Amino acid sequence: MSSVGAIAVSAPLPQFPIVMSVTSSLANGFYKTGQSVPLLVTFSEPVFVTNPGDMQLKVETGSTDQTAIYMSGSGTTALLFLYTVQPGDISSDLDLVSVNPLTLNTALIKDIDGINANLTFVAPGAAGSLSAARAIVIDTIPPTAPGSPTFPSAFTNVSSPSISWTASTDVNFQLYEKKACSSSDCATNCGTAYTTTGLSSTLAGALSPTYYGCIRSKDLASNYSNWVPTANSITLDQTAPTVTNVTSNMADGLYTSGQIEVLMTMSEPIFATNITSINIGMLLVNGTRPIYATSIVSSTILRFLYTIQPGDNTPDLNYCTNCISLGSSTLKDAAGNNANIVLPAIGSASSLGSQKAIAIDAAPPIFTGITNLWRKSETEAQFFWEAARDTTTPTYDIVYEVCQSTTLGSCAASFAVTAVMPQNTFEYTATALTPGVVYEFAVRARDLAGNTTIGTQVQTNKGLSNVTKLRSGTGHSCALLTDGTVKCWGSTYSALLRTPATVAGLSNVVDIALGNLFTCAKLSDQTVKCWGSNTSGQLGDGTITSSAIPVTVLGLTGVQSIAAGTTHACALLADQTVKCWGFNGVGQLGDGTTTTSSSPVLATLTGVTKISLGGSNSCAILTGGSVKCWGSNSYGQIGDGTTTTRITPTTATSVTTAVSVELGTIHACALLSNQTVKCWGANTYGNLGDGTTTTRTTAIVVPSLTAITAISVGDSHTCALNTASTAKCWGINTYGQLGNGTRTNSLSPVDVTDLTNVADLSLTGTNSCALLNNSTVKCWGNGLSGQNGSFANNLIALMPVAIPGLPTLSKLALGEMHTCALLSDGSVSCWGVNNEGQVGSTELNRSTPYPVPGISNVIQLEAGQRHTCALLADQTIRCWGAGAYGELGNGILASNPAPQTVLNISNAVKIYAGLMHTCALLATGTVKCWGQNNQGQLGDGTTTNNSSAVAVTGLSSVADLSLGEVSTCARLTDKTVRCWGSNAYGQFGDGTIVDSLIPVPSLAMGVEKLESGNRHSCAILSDSTVKCWGFNGYYQAGQTVNTPVLTPAPLPTIQNALSVALGAFTSCALLSDQTVKCWGDNGNRQFGVSTSNGPNPIAIGLKGVASLSLGSFHGCAILTDNSARCWGRNDPGMIAKEVFESITTTPRIVAP
Questions:
Q1: Quick one: the chain helix, strand, coil %, rounded to 5?
Q2: Which of 303-317, 493-507, 1073-1087 has the lowest mean pLDDT?
Q3: DSSP 8-class letter at 232
């Protein structure tokens, strides 16, 4: 193609017109069929055309030259021809066919003079030619169609998916066009077409969710190929697949092993990578277990396999909420949308648990094993357990298997079944045991699937044995064993020990002596170690620092024997002198001073053969059998005929042939060489055994007491061991410390029941213990501090019981619809209704005892309507359960299942619970209360509820309390009664129905014990009779007319009452023969028998009752065998066994 705009060389103009140049008015470019190309032929001078229609100007257009027709220009220097592009024309640079392209036929071209024009044109391509003037390309051939337009997939989640094709061919190719159409005809419902130059692109503009991609080619002349559709349509899908169903193809039923197939259906076909990392969490009783996907079934279903493992347990297999994880996998639909993996809501129709009833039971029942084992005798043992729980087997279908063996460890190792107990049986008695042989026992539970408990508790019937010496102090006892070690139990300095515990770091012991919260041991090297409280230097180590571990007493060697008083101790040395240490406020150290010493000082006497210490005094037997004593003498306990305190040893007159002397708190006794006994000092309760209550300042003979080999003295009672190896006791018997089966004081010696083969005796304040010839121990009396090793607060042993070395039941506290038990190890277990947390757990209800967490060292337990309170050994109080009225005393008006410390209480000695308020008796004889106060039952002069303890106004010298629904009464030390709060039904017993916000006197006099129900009270008087007063709508006050009883009224048929227990509208009395009678409301069989309500006391079917408690609708008793029986209303589980009926007439065993 020639250059555009070239300039011709000037030459002399010819005489005829000549063609100067050819050009076009079109721009340089590409032109296609149908387009017109104007051609302008310029002459050297104006020319005139005749017959112009015959002229033909030939244009080079490929295989077929085309003709440009004349249009205009005659009479000018430029003639205009028009070339219309025809199909098939082609030219890369349009020009005329030759130098002679114009054919005139009949036409003529002349100048004005008529001279014919010279029609020789410039050669094509030369200057002045068309191609030199313009770059016009003629292209009438469309490009080839693009090949194979393709979407990468049939689905997409993007609005502009990618599309690709193969190239078109065309010499003048320009670009491709693309569009989206609903049909493959590339004409139906198409979106806007867009251009692109590459062989792939994105496609936008679809007018329907499913569409085809269409591609065509275009060249520079705007020739187009046909539209070419994709072979397959593509669908826009931006909806994530979801889980629509979870089920299983397994049959409903119980499975104990193998695999469970779980199927998860998705809303559309899905595709996964690393499919085996997808997992669902299955909710089991023993925790959440992941199960993993194995494959995709039928494009929309994921298959999971759950392999049952040992311990797996669920009554209805299901997954847990939001418990599905992809792990390292991806889960998408065909469009690439990530799956929304939310499982169907638990309980919905499409959830696994709703569609299938698949139970898994590869776990044994939940079972604690033996809860208590009682060594009843050398040949018999009884043990108890709580009902097991299982998620698939009902409690009443669980079977219990017993193992009994003389090979220790075999029950745990192999569990040979000795007996199979029927359902609903929770105790077993092993009989015909061989005396002296140690047995072990274990129990396991078996469910319907055959699973049995693993690691059941093993207990032995081995008691405290191999004892060589037994000693008792104030609130605790210790035993010296044959191996030279020591075991102690009871209230020690550092803890409350309910069962014997070995003293750490102590060996080679040959003797022990016990005081008040401290103990001393003589070692085989004739030195002494002490431990416990050291407030007065009674440990003898030169300090007043208490120690839970034994410390060496300073400067003692050659020690022959030791003795301990309340807060002082003495040692007899080899030279027959005595050294003492500790408190010396009344001269009990015998050194002529009243100066307390934390290290041993020499007492002013010699020739000593034996020593004995009491509360605040000391005595020594001299070589000739005479006795000298020193220290406190307020009751004549020195025995010198006076009551003058002695700070140096003084002779006890009338005692000349003593072989041993024993001291109590305020009296003393001596065993003489003729095996008789003399006693002196206080005699208030018959302590001296002479048949009187006359205090003696000189020794008198205990009548009818002969052949005595040993004596032991308690606070206000004394016991003697005779040559027949039996024992006699006398004095106070409030807690059964005389061991004769009663609680009646005795002024003269009585036989201890069921006690033989006695080797030694040891007495403390309110209980007694005996060391038997077989080196075992039996105790009786009060268990307040656990010093008899098996009983605790308010539970007494009227006759000797063996020390079992295991926690046992101590006391029951009954609320409106719940029950709590204090165990001998100071822990608490509760059961029954738990709507306010009164059972101490977060579960709604419990039909079996539940150990209350976070509480220990409990010495007393009380229950209100829906709250429970415990007095701890440190004299603080903790409460749990309902708290809306401040019942918990923690400063917050809210319920709480966890034990809460009561504020403003530090020296409590006893606690009492009403309906929604609680009171504490303090060591000062005053009272503090907290909780509901709408009727003034807190006694602080207001009706404001209080969530912390407040003092009762104007009340002192209190001995005991009893709390009703909205009233409170106090028994004073003078045995009178004061009451406050509501008196609407005569609850005060003062003859009126006038309420009072502060204590007012009642007409009750001579009261020994006092108890209150909801709106009535009963008292035991000094003669062991009972009087009641207050509301009598159910005859609970014992009167035949069911109207309020405003003054204390007697119940003639109740004699020899030991205690009374009052429920909401029921009253019961424990009698001296250990039976129980009840009266009042019996709608829930609170009497334990099927009778109607009434004022006449009815005997219930129990014997050997040691203590009694009533709740609002049920009752419980602890028997002398340390088991518990409950009766009355039992929904839900108030009397502790879920297998019992809702109301039970027959007392059921619930413990141990």
A1: 0, 45, 50
A2: 493-507
A3: S
Homologous superfamily in CATH for domain 154-236: Immunoglobulins (2.60.40.10)
Q: 572 to each of 199, 524, 741, 783, how far by Cα in Å?
A: 116, 15, 38, 32
Residue found by looking up tokens 């347990």 in the block: 313
Tens digit of each residue's pLDDT (9 = 90 or more) over 366-394: 888 887 676 666 788 888 787 888 877 88
- Tell me the Ramachandran region of residue 252: left when phi exceeds 0, alpha when psi lies from -120 to 50, beta otherwise: beta
Paired residues of 180 in beta bridges: 213
- On whether the CB atoms of residues 477 and 769 are closer than 8 A, the answer is yes
Q: Using CA atoms, how far apart are residues 195 and 722, in angstroms rounded to an integer?
A: 125
Q: In this structure, what token pair is assigned to residue 784? A: 């307040």
Q: How far is CA 471 from CA 372, 514, 611, in A?
A: 26, 7, 15
Q: Is the peptide bond between 1132 and the residue preceding it cis, with omega within 30 degrees of 0?
A: yes
- CATH number, domain 969-1151, options 3.40.50.300, 3.30.465.10, 3.30.390.10, 2.130.10.30: 2.130.10.30
Tokens of 174: 């320009």
Write the CA distances from 103 to 54, 57, 68, 580, 874, integer angstroms: 8, 6, 11, 161, 137
Strand blocks (E) in 773-857: 777-782, 796-802, 809-814, 818-823, 828-833, 845-851
Give dist(CA 174, CA 490) in Å, integer: 107
Structure tokens at 739: 């061991």
Reported CATH class of domain 19-139? mainly beta
Superfamily of domain 372-459: Immunoglobulins (2.60.40.10)
Does residue 732 sit in helix, strand or coil? coil
Q: Are 902 and 869 a contacting pair, CB within 8 Å?
A: yes
Please give the full DSSP string across 646-677, using - where no structure is assigned.
Answer: EEEEEE-TT--SEEEEEE-SSEEEEEETTS-E
**503-604 in CATH: which number?**
2.130.10.30
Which SS3 state, helix, strand or coil, does residue 410 take?
helix
Nearest one of 762, 857, 746 to 800, comparing CA atoms: 762
Looking only at Cα atoms, what is the longest distance across the chain? 192
Arithmetic mean of pLDDT over the chain: 88
Q: What single-letter DSSP state applies at residue 615?
A: S
Pairing outcome for strands 234-236 and 155-156: parallel
Least confident of 317-321, 694-698, 754-758, 899-903: 754-758
3-state secondary structure 118-155: ECCCCCCCCCCCHHHHCCEEEECCCCCCCEEEECCCCE
| SS3 at position 870 | strand
DSSP 427-479: EEEE-SPPTT---EEEEEEE-TT--B-SS--EEE---S--EEEEEE-BSEEEE
Where on the phi/psi map is residue 875: left (φ > 0), alpha (ψ -120 to 50), or beta? Answer: left
- Contacts (Cβ under 8 Å, ≥6 apart) of 157: 236, 237, 238, 335, 336, 337
157, pLDDT greater than 50: yes
Smallest CA-to-CA distance from 969 within 915, 934, 1011 is with 1011
- Write out the DSSP string of 1089-1138: S----EEEEEE-S--SEEEEEE-SSEEEEEETTS-EEEEEE-TTSTTS-T
Each domain of the chain, given as residue ranges in start order, spans 19-139, 154-236, 243-362, 372-459, 503-604, 969-1151
DSSP sequence for 739-772: -SSS---EEEEEEPTT--SEEEEEE-SSEEEEEE
Q: Is the pLDDT of residue 5 over 90?
A: no
The pTM (predicted TM-score) of the whole model is: 0.41
503-604 shares the fold of 243-362: no
Q: Which two tokens stand for residue 40?
A: 């302008």
The predicted structure's pLDDT at residue 3: 37
Among the CATH numbers 2.60.40, 1.10.10, 3.40.50, 2.40.128, which is that of 243-362? 2.60.40
Give 236 or 782, the one with higher predicted confidence: 236
Q: What is the pLDDT of residue 13?
A: 53
